[in-house]
Write a structure and sequence with these properties.
With 268 residues, the chain is α/β, with parallel strands linked by helices. It has 2 domains: 155 residues, HAD superfamily/HAD-like (Rossmann fold, 3-Layer(aba) Sandwich), CATH 3.40.50.1000; 100 residues, Hypothetical Protein, Haloacid Dehalogenase-like Hydrolase, Chain: A, domain 2 (2-Layer Sandwich), CATH 3.30.1240.10. Helices cover 37% and strands 23% of the residues. The strands form 2 sheets. An 8-stranded mixed beta sheet has the order 5-4-3-2-1-12-13-14. Strand 3 and strand 4 form a beta hairpin. The mean pLDDT is 95.
Amino acid sequence: MDKKLLVLDIDGTLVNNKKEITPKTKEALLKAQDAGHIVMLGSGRPTPGLMKNAELLELEKRGGYLLSFNGGKVSKAGSDEIIYQSTLPNEYIKIVYDFACEKDLGLVTYRDNDVICARRPDEYLEFEARLNGMNLVCVDNFVDYVNFPVNKCLISADPEKSFDLMNELQERCGDKLNIGRSEAFFIEVTSPGVDKADTIEKILPILGISRENTICCGDGFNDKTMIEFAGLGVAMANAKEEVKAAADYITSSNEEDGIAEVVYKFVL
């Protein structure tokens, strides 16, 4: 059997609605790794937000990887070794900040174990910090403070307005930034060309795995491109309809061990 790369979104995919990996799913993924296959967590979350699940799945011991920031960074699990990363052009930090101020939106970026808040915390940004087990730190002068490499900025917005705001920011920035949504209330800002599919394509030669042996599983807007790219693109039963339309296979929901189903059907 050819070695496969199994790329798993986390929220709504790997974990159930309680944000837990069930015993059945964990057992399936450990068996897959024991059989020589590679597991990669692929999420819009910052890298620290992947650690808990990486530890549960023993990715460090079994040679797994972490794809964070929607593909802005890939690292070896349990290591500081960065396989690939892409950072925002510094001059666009101010443009994103000015847009957030103009539209009265929340804005954060990330450094180490901190979520750096540009203006004021809101329920969505507090959720982001809590979900990832990170500290929410508010700073007075965001543009001056952010003098370090940034993989992603995150804007929080009213879910009913976020789609139009996303398009407006994309028009303002042109092809200098990549603007998308991971949730209806989150607008994600990364460097040009960054998405999960683009990054997976770049690292496949490093891992020595073909596109045909790549299985990508997800449920959200930011999973669509990797599902389209994969040799086998899998949407969860709970996925957005446009994500399901892009998939080769629709598995059970994240509440019904849909990832375990994929492992036993297509990997083992």
